[in-house]
Design brief:
- It contains 6 helices and no strands.
- The chain has a domain of 38 residues.
- The protein starts with a helix and ends in a 10-residue tail after the last helix.
- It has 142 residues and is mainly alpha-helical.
- Helix content is 78%, strand content 0%.
- 1% of the residues are buried.
């Protein structure tokens, strides 16, 4: 190996060592930044912003979810054994039971509601009630 090559190799090794020191210094700076109060506050507000954005996008699906739950409620009502099993489980969660029982009830239609109809008769009753009140037959409010 000639002197020139040896010098070039030593210079390259020094440059590599300098780069390693610079990288270590940058890591220390980065650690100091990510553990500082301003950074933690920034992360808190950034996460809060992303949560709000996601929550607002979920509100659009709230109506669709409600329609699915109402449809599921009507299907469960057609199977008494399944309904009694589910109601037995829900009895341990009274608030949830109340909310699910009220799901899909329209107060204006419920005022004159006579309990004891079968699901099919109930559907016909509410369709006739909507027509009588000037509403659309295909509305699914119950």
């Amino acid at each position: 190996m000639s002197r020139e090559e040896y010098r070039t190799q030593r210079e390259l090794l020094r440059e590599i060592e300098d780069l390693h020191r610079q990288m270590a210094a940058m890591r220390c700076d980065l650690d100091a930044l990510t553990h500082s109060k301003p950074w933690r506050l920034y992360l808190f507000f950034a996460n809060l912003f992303h949560f709000i954005v996601r929550f607002r996008s979920l509100q659009g699906t709230k109506r669709n979810t409600k329609k699915i739950l109402i449809s599921l409620k009507h299907r469960i009502n057609r199977h008494p054994a399944l309904k009694s099993c589910i109601m037995g489980m829900l009895s341990h969660f009274p608030h949830l039971e109340y909310r699910l029982k009220r799901l899909g009830h329209n107060q204006s239609l419920d005022a004159a509601y006579v309990p004891g109809f079968s699901p099919a008769a109930e559907s016909i009753y509410f369709q006739l009630k909507r027509i009588d009140e000037g509403g659309d037959v295909h509305e699914d409010s119950h």
